[in-house]
């Protein structure tokens, strides 16, 4: 029983280290997988809003208090919606990134 418990804890610890080290890259941006996973919970908030300066639309999710701070720099990009859409695909099935099924994932 003790051997099984020790083995299970070692396996969980290894998985946690591997998952924590995975990064997702989109163009010049690189984000921790854990930050990308948080987008799944914020998905319904992604209706565009217009900048006050009359510039391009910024996804509303960027101003949400639970939006990961690591992803904030992409909100200033003109193609922020496109980038978020690609990251959402990874957030929907993060296991694919953890085994590096997406070309954008590294650190597996």
UniProtKB/TrEMBL annotation:
Pfam families: Guanylin. It is found in: Secreted. It comes from the Eukaryota. Endogenous activator of intestinal guanylate cyclase. It stimulates this enzyme through the same receptor binding region as the heat-stable enterotoxins. One of its GO terms (cellular component) is extracellular region. The lineage of its organism: Eukaryota, Metazoa, Chordata, Craniata, Vertebrata. One of its GO terms (molecular function) is guanylate cyclase activator activity. Keywords: Disulfide bond, Secreted, Signal. SUPFAM superfamilies: Proguanylin. This is Guanylin. InterPro entries: Guanylin, Guanylin_sf. Disulfide bonds join 62-75, 97-105, 100-108. Residues 1-19 form the signal peptide. Transmembrane segments: none annotated. Belongs to the guanylin family.
């Amino acid at each position: 029983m003790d051997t099984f418990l020790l083995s299970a804890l070692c396996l969980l610890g290894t998985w946690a280290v591997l998952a924590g080290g995975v990064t997702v890259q989109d163009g010049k941006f690189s984000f921790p997988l854990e930050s990308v996973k948080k987008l799944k919970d914020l998905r319904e908030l992604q209706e565009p809003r217009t900048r006050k300066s009359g510039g391009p639309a910024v996804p509303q999710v960027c101003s949400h208090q639970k939006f990961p701070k690591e992803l904030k720099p992409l909100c200033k990009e003109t193609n922020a919606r496109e980038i978020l859409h690609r990251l959402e695909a990874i957030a929907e099935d993060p296991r694919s990134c953890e085994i590096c099924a997406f070309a954008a994932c590294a650190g597996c």
